[in-house]
Amino acid sequence: MGTAPNYDAIVIGSGIGGLVTATQLSAKGAKVLVLERYLIPGGSAGYFEREGYRFDVGASMIFGFGQKGTTNLLTRALAAVGQELETFPDPTQIHYHLPGGLDLKVHRDYEQFLGELERRFPQEKAGIRRFYDECWRVFNCLNSIELLSLEDPQYLLRVFFQNPGACLGLARYLPFNVGPLARKYIRDPDLLKFIDMECYCWSVAPAERTPLINAGMVFSDRHYGGINYPKGGVGQIAQKLVQGLEKTGGEICYQARVTQILTEGGRAVGVKLADGTEYRAQRVVSNATRWDTFGNLLKDQPLPPREARWQRRYQKSPSFLSLHLGVKADVLSVGTECHHILLEDWQNLEAEQGTLFVSIPTLLDPSLAPAGHHIIHAFTPSWLEYWQGLNPKEYQAKKEDCAQRLIQRLEALFPGLEAALDYQEVGTPRTHRRFLGRVDGTYGPVPRRVLPGLLTMPFNRTAVPGLYCVGDSAFPGQGLNAVAFSGFACGHRIARDLGY
Ligand SMILES: Cc1cc2nc3c(=O)[nH]c(=O)nc-3n(C[C@H](O)[C@H](O)[C@H](O)COP(=O)(O)OP(=O)(O)OC[C@H]3O[C@@H](n4cnc5c(N)ncnc54)[C@H](O)[C@@H]3O)c2cc1C
């Protein structure tokens, strides 16, 4: 068993939530150690390279890289440790291909987007504007205050006196979901289904179960800071955060799998790695999911009642079946957008392999593929159960069969795709579980039933003194900018607790 130095904070995992916590603390002078089980940082925002292609593991529609306001949290997190990233602005957030020939683009320009939607649903012109304008009001409240820990009364008082209107506005919106707001302004069932898809594509839940605060952020920031793709791929965000961490005196170890959070007298005091090494710190932060944190890393202890309540309210979302393709460039017609969503039948919105997400990041950064080629990342929700109990041959055959069906569906968007294939790799929920260390490969928590907006999402402190959670199973949920928010809040709360 190795002896190890003491740290102010140990962060388990180098996802964007963990790295933002670590860099925020390190920038304030705290002694921080990040322990990452994999070979590189980033988690779901990581990358892998094959035959000249650099594929994003997951995320590629990136919010938070704007240059103004307070919600550009990725720009801010990098700047806090002296880093920046060049980005490519994406002119269209999503090109939707939906049932009944509902073909719509979410343009970066708000009026252009509303114009396209209003032309499609002329009878709902006023309602469309009222709905999306109200989302802007939510966003404007968020975007006018510094976003830190809601668990710090001093911070809350300060922002309240600086901007009472915004704070009261947010308090009012906090317990609401998107569904009732959409139904207040909109009647057309197809348009309501479109709003469901607008939510589902990032919250993995329809409007009824999607918090309004998150929707205000997504539905407005895409037209404000915009969607911007980092040069060199999404993996660059984590790489740069690590550079900033090390520049400010922090440390990171790879292939360092934490198997246990050590406690003394009920308080978290350190961690133990798979190789037996123990590290001690004043504070321990888990960037693993809450299920992994309390189910695996603290498995010898009874589940705190607060966590049991959370698990009764939130369930694991499905994982994904991912198809990473390298294709000949000429299969994409001129003007093809970077992000697409395909659904043929509304009944399948939430179904296993129903909604199909597509990203073609090489349309923004051609350097990610060999000359004359593009990357197509297509992914669709899938459950771990669907992939269990198979021998290696059956597993391989099922992967090939599912990939073939996805390619057939993609042919509707990109005719000739099959003939243009140059490289193909399939990831399943088992792959996500194995490489991301996420239970069942889940994308994150989704409400089991209609909950009061974001009110029931836990902040960073946990029932175990000295232990904090950060990332997508903490407030405010999934997505890179959201977990960066969680990292800012966690870093801020710990800095206060440690007196930095
Ligand atoms: C297919 C897919 C597409 C997505 N698309 C988008 C998108 O377009 N835009 C967007 O904003 N978001 C997207 N997301 C969501 C986004 O990627 C995640 O919400 C976010 O990256 C999660 O960050 P995190 O910090 O919570 O943790 P994670 O990314 O899960 O990172 C946690 C890290 O902790 C490490 N770890 C776990 N357990 C241990 C342990 N015991 N010891 C040591 N290390 C450990 C893991 O290896 C990992 O590196 C997508 C996700 C997926 C899967």
Summarize the structure.
This protein is of the alpha/beta class and 500 residues long. Helices cover 36% and strands 22% of the residues. It folds into three domains: 6-46 and 66-85 and 230-313 and 450-498, FAD/NAD(P)-binding domain (3-Layer(bba) Sandwich); 117-223, no CATH class; 318-439, 2-Layer Sandwich (Guanine Nucleotide Dissociation Inhibitor, domain 2), CATH 3.30.519.
Descriptive overview:
With 500 residues, this protein is α/β, with parallel strands linked by helices. The protein folds into three domains: 6-46 and 66-85 and 230-313 and 450-498, FAD/NAD(P)-binding domain (3-Layer(bba) Sandwich), CATH 3.50.50; 117-223, no CATH class; 318-439, Guanine Nucleotide Dissociation Inhibitor, domain 2 (2-Layer Sandwich), CATH 3.30.519. The protein contains 15 helices and 20 strands. The strands form five sheets. Strands 1, 2, 9, 10, 11, 12 and 20 form a seven-stranded mixed sheet that branches. It has a seven-stranded mixed sheet with strand order 7-6-15-16-17-14-18. Helix 5 crosses helix 6 (164-173) and helix 7 runs antiparallel to helix 8. The protein binds flavin-adenine dinucleotide.
Bound heterogens, unique: flavin-adenine dinucleotide
Strand content: 15-25%
| Number of DSSP-assigned strands | 20
CATH topology of the largest domain: FAD/NAD(P)-binding domain
* Low-pLDDT segments, ≥5 res: none
**Helix/strand structural class:** alpha/beta
CATH superfamily of the largest domain: FAD/NAD(P)-binding domain
N/C terminus separation: 32 Å
Shape type? globular
The helix tally amounts to 15
- Second-tier CATH architecture of the largest domain: 3-Layer(bba) Sandwich
Q: Biggest β-sheet, characterized?
A: 7 strands, mixed
Radius of gyration: 22 Å
Total individual domains: 3
Proportion of helical residues: 25-40%
CATH class of the largest domain: Alpha Beta
Average per-residue pLDDT, rounded, comes to 97
